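[recover] target loaded
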């Protein structure tokens, strides 16, 4: 047995030597093949990743990165699965449905367009009163104006186009009233119930009076009083759209159109109770108003210390006639168009 062992010992030494030589050769080849890859991994992930490889861990993929120098900022290269940065639109892929992201709703601040005109009634100037007259012009107009002029008093008149008479038949009296500095406003063409009219009908009623005043006086009125004191939001809208400055009501009524009709003495007595700030309704188509009431109440009110003035003055708006109208032209010369023929009849829109 010993001889046999001695004989095998040299063989085993040679075999070990051969194994070592083969191993060295193999390792050399492995280094040539694997070495460059290991170096690249080291440059990207560091020695810790190499240690992990030695322990059997799978290396993280380097897909999506590019090589960078130390002087260059590191920038990841987005892969196909990268999510777009917030705020940037995603590019739709043809053939794929894209659900739009709803934009944040924004509500625009409402733009308030104010075209309705203010409504006035009570005089605000201390100690003031205003004598106002509706429904003219008429056959008593010149006499009424003469009474006011003699008392150095200015009246306020809201006129119709075709009511008690045709406005063009009193053109001379109306022009004289205008030249004397009395305030003239609109009372609609045919004294209609404005609450029953459409926007277009109301506008037409005002337009006809404007046309007549432009022909006769050369101006368009900027103030208006509604017949029966009736108005609504549509009326105010029409007035605003047509450029009017205000709607004038009243806060005292002489009663000259009451039923039964009061006597002139009763009306004068009513005047005695009217306080400062009174904006008084009268009608220039009533003969007793023109011939008896007004000649009596003017000196009575003045004696009590009241200042009689136009409605625009007593309301503190303007005492300048240039602010009461829009100047369009010089007073016109009568022609064939100065007629109420084919125009709305009293109380009618059409």
């Amino acid at each position: 047995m010993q001889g046999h062992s001695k004989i095998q010992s040299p063989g085993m030494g040679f075999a070990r030597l051969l194994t070592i030589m083969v191993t060295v050769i193999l390792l050399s080849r492995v280094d040539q093949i694997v070495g460059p890859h290991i170096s690249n991994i080291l440059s990207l992930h560091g020695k810790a990743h190499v240690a992990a490889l030695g322990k059997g861990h799978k290396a993280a993929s380097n897909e999506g990165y590019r090589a960078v120098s130390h002087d260059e900022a590191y920038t990841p290269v987005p892969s196909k699965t990268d999510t777009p940065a917030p705020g940037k639109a995603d590019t739709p892929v043809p053939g794929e449905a894209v659900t739009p992201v709803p934009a944040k709703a924004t509500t625009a601040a409402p733009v308030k367009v104010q075209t309705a005109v203010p409504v006035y009634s009570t005089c605000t100037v201390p100690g003031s009163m205003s004598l106002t007259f509706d429904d003219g012009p008429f056959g008593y107009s010149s006499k009424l104006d003469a009474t006011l002029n003699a008392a150095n008093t200015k009246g306020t008149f809201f006129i119709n186009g075709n009511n008690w008479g045709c406005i063009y038949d009193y053109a001379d009296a109306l022009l004289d009233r205008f030249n004397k500095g009395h305030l003239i406003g609109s009372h609609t063409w045919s004294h209609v119930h404005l609450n029953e009219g459409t926007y277009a009908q109301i506008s037409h009623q005002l337009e006809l009076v404007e046309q007549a005043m432009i022909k006769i006086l050369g101006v368009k009125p900027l103030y208006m009083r509604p017949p029966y004191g009736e108005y609504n939001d549509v009326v105010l809208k029409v007035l605003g759209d047509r450029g009017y400055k205000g709607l004038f009501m009243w806060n005292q009524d002489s009663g000259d159109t009451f039923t039964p009709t009061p006597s002139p003495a009763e009306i004068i007595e009513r005047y005695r109770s009217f306080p400062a700030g009174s904006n008084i309704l009268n009608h220039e188509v009533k003969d007793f108003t023109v011939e008896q009431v007004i000649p009596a109440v003017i000196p009575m009110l003045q004696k009590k210390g009241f200042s009689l003035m136009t409605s625009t003055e007593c309301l503190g708006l303007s005492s300048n006639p240039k602010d009461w109208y829009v100047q369009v032209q010089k007073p016109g010369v009568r022609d064939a168009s100065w007629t109420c023929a084919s125009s709305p009849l009293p109380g009618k829109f059409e």
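[recover] notes: The radius of gyration is 51 Å.
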